[in-house]
Amino acid sequence: MSVIETSGLSKHYLAGGLRARLRGTASVIPALDDVGLAVRPGEVFGFLGPNGAGKTTCIRLLLGFLHPSAGSARVLGLDTQADGVAIRGRVGYLPGGVALYDAMTGTELLDYLGAFYGRPASRRTRMVDGLELAARDLARPIRDYSRGMRQKLGIVQALQHDPELAILDEPSEGLDPLMQRAFYEILDELRAAGRTVFLSSHVLSEVERVCDRVAIVRRGRLVALEEIGALLARRRRTVEMRLAGPPPDLAGVPGVSDVEVVDGHLRCRLEGDVRPFLAAIGGSAVTDLTIEPARLEEAFLEYYEDGGEVVANPAPAGAVS
Amino acid sequence: MSGVLLRRTVAAARWRLLAVTAGLALWGFLLPVIYATFGADFRRLVEGGYFGDLFELFTSFAGGSVFTLSGSVALGFVHPIPIALAAVFAIGYPVAAIAGERQRGTLEVILARPISRRRLYLTALAATGLFVLVALAGNGAGIVAGSVLFGVADELEPEQLLLAWANAVLLFLALGALALAASASFDRLAPALGLTLGFALASYAVEFLGAIWPDIGWLRPWSLFHYFQPAEILAGEASPTDTLVLAGITAAAAAYALWAFPRRDLAAPS
């Protein structure tokens, strides 16, 4: 059973004021359009897209804050429209730019929000320690907190009750590099404990580091859903080498394209498995070799470079039609 | 209803509630004191015709007057000061309970917990009722204390005072339910507050101006305050219609909010 499963999930808004609606001239804006995805138990799933792509809309549909215009979504086997309360009892949610009660102290807030679940906040102490939230900090009113402190408190409130599924919207926003690392360790712990994490982020290096699979949305549509490794392997990387002799024959080598040789300097593009390429250059007088690492950032940008058309098959493993 | 949410709501409002209750208690206390101390002098001034009708006009309002204890108490109920004080919890709190939380972005932090929107709404309605009850209990206690301490308690019928107090509670509950319905309908505080406050002020003006300006008298039945008649109740002329209308408005506003709030889309706060 998938932890999250959506089928044809769509959310459309009517643009224009009341007058346009009454006249029937309001245009429909698709905030999310026909999204089908499945998140497996125990995985850290990255949900990527630029601002306005539909990430937050999708999350709010999963939590029952929004009602779908079409399609359906199930979370932990429950329908998001009919079983919202039961779902939210098993989910931890960190909203993007989380707003907290400024008059409360950190401890009061965590006690208050934890009390709704009717079970002990079993992860709180470990998370508070991991994120270096000192007892004296938690005793201060939240109005005195820095942005990073608020974000740390937001993370703790979302995960303190050890939810089966964590839905985190831009979780490392405002965290310094040290705290980002501490947060990644928390995600590793959750993964090790078999918890599922659905993470929306702009920070591609973060997604690359922590996620097992990613979905990429653009203009409300799902344009990719793949294992991180597969996504990176499909990327065309740039290879540059300096030669002390004749260039190797790269014609017909799988994955190699756009070969250029200028003044003992060879440059080409390499996609997929590197082993055929390495075998092909084995006998050449290579004095220097650089293979650009496959980064999620470039893979992500490739999906956004093609003028709005879908550039990849969005229905590999895990997708729901 | 959510006990966790209700406890937190009460804790957050406790000092404000204490201040408003104390203010209403003081106001309630002053009415019998003013009557006991100056009532006879006021009556002599009016009967002597020293200031013509002007003095009587300023000392009589909405069926109340300072010439009898029941008239003073009735005047105390409908005066703008106690109404403004009670509105802190009959309008201020419910308007902020949903629209204010939504505007601040904290509503989604609460709704991310296992609590339904209906339950959240019912908790806010219960808190509104509780706050109104406590604040007006202060008012009632002040009236009783003032009457007893200044030796005029025997001029009041306890049953009628209780009925007048209940009429006030019902009025502010109806206002609270309307405010909460507006709060559940908007994403921002300003339209919810503007709509509720505008309705309350217009309602108040229509009822009390309509009593002295016959041209707008036909509008009075459309005013919420038309069904708030402490002077009539204290004179032994309580009308069950007032109770039914106020209870009906409360129920209708609650029914609307319970229907509309869960159906609304709560987009990300901007």
Task: Report on this structure.
With 321 residues, chain A is α/β, with parallel strands linked by helices. Among the domains of chain A are: 4-90 and 164-232 and 297-302, Rossmann fold, CATH 3.40.50; 236-293, Alpha-Beta Plaits (2-Layer Sandwich), CATH 3.30.70.100. Chain A has twelve helices and 14 strands. In chain A, the strands form three sheets. Chain A has a six-stranded mixed sheet, sandwiched between helices. In chain A, strands 2-1-4-5 form a four-stranded antiparallel sheet. In chain A, strand 9 (213-218) and strand 10 (221-227) form a beta hairpin. Chain A is globular and about 70 Å long. The model of chain A is unreliable at 307-321 (pLDDT under 50). With 270 residues, chain B is mainly α. Chain B has one domain. Chain B has helices spanning 3-48, 53-59, 69-78, 80-104, 107-111, 117-149, 158-183, 189-210, 230-234, 240-263; strands at 60-61, 64-65. In chain B, a hairpin with a 2-residue loop joins strand 1 and strand 2 (64-65). In chain B, helix 4 (80-104) runs antiparallel to helix 6, helix 4 packs antiparallel against helix 8 and helix 6 (117-149) runs antiparallel to helix 7. The radius of gyration of chain B is 20 Å and the shape is elongated. Classes of the chains: A alpha/beta (321), B mainly alpha (270). The interface between A and B is medium-sized, with 29 and 23 residues.
